Amino acid sequence: MMIALALLTAVGVREPLGVWQRWAALREGPGARCFAIARPLRRDGTTDRRGGYALIAARQGMTRAPSVRFHLSKPRGAGAPLTLVIGDRRFALGGDGLEARAGDAATDRAIVGAIRGAAAMTLATLDAAGRTLADTYPLAGAATAIDAAQLGCARG
Q: What is the spatial distance between Cα 80 and Cα 7, in angstroms, rounded to a whole number?
């Protein structure tokens, strides 16, 4: 719970919609932006506090697919590929040194669908020194947080 509350403060959120496991759903600002958010885990199972997060933003209206975005825990190396692994599915993402995102709405929908049926997801790339960088997120509670974010903005 403390981890989720720290996320609330970090992103300047006005209204928490709920916390499920390691995922929080938030409603922010005028014009209501809603999203589900979580921080990655370290190898020892504790929360990685280097600044990385996964954010699944609700798009306006209930029929629009959420968009998926990541902030890496460390900068990636120039030109290093970004691969999101969810269960047995792999998604190539685009982005800059610290950000990663799906290239289109169809990929966003496929990622959210995969999240709903998996236990964890890992965003993998190489850091500036060429070492593997892998941010892993447990997915327990993610589907509920995504749904809460979608509903939170649908209510106006």
A: 28
